[in-house]
Amino acid sequence: MKKVLVISYFWPPSGKASVHWPLKIIKHLPEFDCEPYVLTVAEDSYTRMDESMLNEINPALKVYKSKSFEPFRLYKIFTGRHKNEHIIDSETISSTNKNLTHRLSIWIRMNLFVPDARIGWYFNAVRLGKKIISKNKIDAIISIGPPHSTQLIALRLSKLFRIPHYPVFIDPWIDIIYYKAFKRSKITLALDNYFERKVLKHSKASIFITHTMKDDYSRKYAFLKEKSFVLYWGYDEDSFNNVVCERTNVNNTIVHAGNIFDYQNPVNFWKLIKHKIDSGQNLKLKFIGSVSPAIKNEIANAGLEAYAEYAGFLPYKELVNQLLNAKFLLVCASEPRHVPGKLFEYLRTGKPIIAFGNDNKEVSEILKNSNAGMIFNYNQNGSDFFDLSENFKTNLEYVKKFERQSIARQFSEIIHMKDPK
Question: What is the Cα gyration radius of the chain?
Fold first, then answer.
């Protein structure tokens, strides 16, 4: 059995969605001849906590935690926030906030913290990682990013101990979508590009969670073509066990789960919903997670304030129940390389899905193959979805290919390859 060190910044009790992929993959790796160990941060002061996620961890799993310098504590002081006040993801990078301290804090974040604001974890994590590898005779390292500072930690340890490194890219590194709205200096970009290339060049195999991201990186770095793989975000079947999902017309709520940012704003869709309500249809909007100021403003401008509920953060089990009780599910992709993680949980519910994302062929293909819904560009209103919604009967046999037990099996096969090609 191969011993594998998994480096993930986000780990329970963090309630961030990024927790679910490493947590559930690790859960299944021992079934496929891989013994996981975890290196994570001692305290994540940024994300919401979901204590229930601690119950998902195998008591036998060895989890090591290192201290970290958290610049978000300074961000709170700098922007006049209380030290115990929670920071909302969509607000920290909102372009609608013209406050000088906010704009300056974003410039500092985008230019002085390379590759990201979690780099303060690097030295302590490398120090602890050395001890973990020496004590447990680790055979391989997996790192989950973003934050891509985890990739640099893994790269350092991989070189020191001459063991293979498998970086996982949940999102792109250099040109992640929200960077485009902010100016980064040439020096910052050059250094970030250097780190990205160095990590990918050194990797034994690189993992991407979408085919479009894999193809994009393979065009950028020719050396990746023979050693890159796609492992989708997927869903965990245990979260849906013993739950019967029945299509119903009782609840007329359209649910969006996860963060929604300024650049994910289907303006004409909000107008369509208001038109349908004015025409006598009983529809409501419900948002679970953080909602950017621009989205809230647009919903208010459409006259939907009385029909929109902002539930904020919910524990994961409650979130799943909300999805199962919705009539329709809304998902917004950020760019053509983005297949939102929530899409797979949406698919498993069997509920009709309306998606927005400009030229996102991958989401379109998944929805078509599963007969689960439709995707539209952001300048469209999605009216065809409602006309055809009764025709969407999700093919759950197709959806099963995205179960995380299957994804863990595929990952173990990559790890056991002598020469990934």
Answer: 21
> Rounded to 5 degrees, what are φ and ψ at 5?
-95, 120
Per-residue pLDDT of the chain in tens (421 residues, 90 and over written 9): 999 999 999 999 988 888 999 999 999 999 999 999 999 999 765 567 888 889 999 999 999 999 987 665 555 554 555 555 555 554 555 555 556 665 666 666 676 778 888 888 999 999 999 999 999 999 999 999 999 999 999 999 999 999 999 999 999 998 877 667 677 888 888 999 999 999 999 999 999 999 999 999 999 999 999 999 999 999 999 998 855 554 444 579 999 999 999 899 999 999 999 999 999 999 999 999 999 989 999 999 999 999 999 999 999 989 999 999 999 999 999 999 999 999 999 999 999 999 999 999 999 999 999 999 999 999 999 999 999 999 999 999 999 999 999 999 999 999 999 765 5
CB 323, CB 345: distance < 8 Å: yes
d(CA 134, CA 146): 26
Residue 234: C-alpha distances to residues 2, 25, 328, 345, 407 (Å): 24, 10, 20, 7, 8
Domains along the chain with CATH numbers: 2-69+112-234+403-416 (3.40.50.2000), 238-401 (3.40.50.2000)
Q: Which of 124, 156, 159, 137 is nearest to 39 (CA)?
A: 124
Which pTM does this prediction carry? 0.88
